[in-house]
Amino acid sequence: MGKVAAGVAVGVAVAACxxxxxxxxxxxxxxxxxxxxxxxxxxxxxxxxxPVGRLRQVVDAMAVEMHAGLASEGGSKLKMLLxxxxxxPTGSEIGTYYALDLGxxxxxxxRIQLGGRRSSILSQxxxxxxxxxxxxxxxxxxxFDFIASTLKQFVEKEESGSEPSPVRTRELGFTFSFPVKxxxxxxxxxxxxxxxxxxxxxxxxxxxxxxxxALVRSGLDMRVALLVNDTVGTLALGRYHDADTVAAVIIxxxxxxCYLERADAIIKCQGLLTxxxxxxxxMEWGNFWSSxxxxxxxxxxxxxESPNPNDxxxxxxxxxMYLGDIVRRVILRISLESDIFGPVSSxxxxxxxxxxxxxxxxxxxxxxxxxxxAKILKETLEISEVSxxxxxLVVRICDVVTCRAARLAxxxxxxxxxxxxxxxxxxxxxxxxxxSDVKMKRTVVAIEGGLYxxxxxxxxxxxxxxxxxxxxxxxxxxxxxxxxxxxxxxALLAASYSSYSVDGVKLx
Length: 508
Description:
- This protein is α/β, with parallel strands linked by helices.
- It has a domain at 84-231 and 485-506: Nucleotidyltransferase, domain 5, CATH 3.30.420.40.
- Helices cover 44% and strands 18% of the residues.
- A hairpin with a 3-residue loop joins β2 and β3 (106-115).
- Residues 12-28, 427-437 and 502-508 have low confidence and may be disordered.
């Protein structure tokens, strides 16, 4: 019995050692896995760093590129397009004006009635209409006949029962958010289609001429007062509400900016004459690039796999179209290097499956167990049964990517302010820091887009960066949210450029 007992004891000891060895091995393996994960996270954090010194370099680079783009065509990645808008709404506009907003697979028609007092929009009517799929690849005549017919029905419905305006042609602001080479306030040639449109006979044609021909065919008495893009509309709406508005920025699915520039600073158009001495310049800032931008391997891969490689570099780092996909790429790399997410999900290889609203929902999940993170990982990426520790890791990745985007957007805004002398740098090159001896003007930037308005953490990081870069000057800079600048702004510009008014005052 003694020998048997001893044998059993030895067997138990061996088994215990084996179990302990397995446990220790698992712990060591787990530590190694997390070391790899931590290394990936640390590399991301380091590559995305945006200390204030770096942000100031981006500010300077933006201002330099703006100068270069104004000096010559092709002199900069920034196109710095002339809009021929040389005055903005004053608030004294009176009358009824229309807008057509075409910038995607839907278009909108608007009618506003202005009362002649700043911020006094007496009434506003809007109708949204989807564009039938076949018209997006048909002919220009088919597309604009459909739009003109819808516009005519809208006008007749909204004006039914109202007193007709004597001998007055209705006026329309046309917001057309596709690449256009503009040659005057009312003329612009379509360069190329985007957003699913492919109407071949319209490329290289005058956009306003095609619309006005359709209006004539429909029997609608309406004049197109001007052609603008959505950013210019946002600036017009901001200026209507606040006379200190000097720039506009859209930060949503895409991003762009425009601002009011001195006409004599637009060197590539020497002798340019404007009634105000200024002109609105459409920067097309999504294409901005500088070696000071903190680019990661994920950005490089995203760009190379995109339909427009080496294009829109700034946009790909800061806009809603791309942030979710950057996060997806980081999660995919971690999943390939460790099994903390379980077996590699095939969904992680689908571009843009993780859209930015989902990123925002995970980032701003304040539940103790991060239930929203778990839900999105499971339903969107088919990653389930992950620990709280892993969910916290995902939130951290979202935070790093979003923080970088917001801080770079802030640097871009300050770059505009620097170019027009509103950053407080003045003499001595203090970069806007604590210059109490400089009398600063109140400066308003109109801002629009869901990434800014709906994503709390993005907005918070942008404002923090603005304060860091500008110092005391930040108190003089207001970011003012506008709503529907692309639509209402177009109608306001129609009023501002009405053939029936002088300086916005109605004559008829």
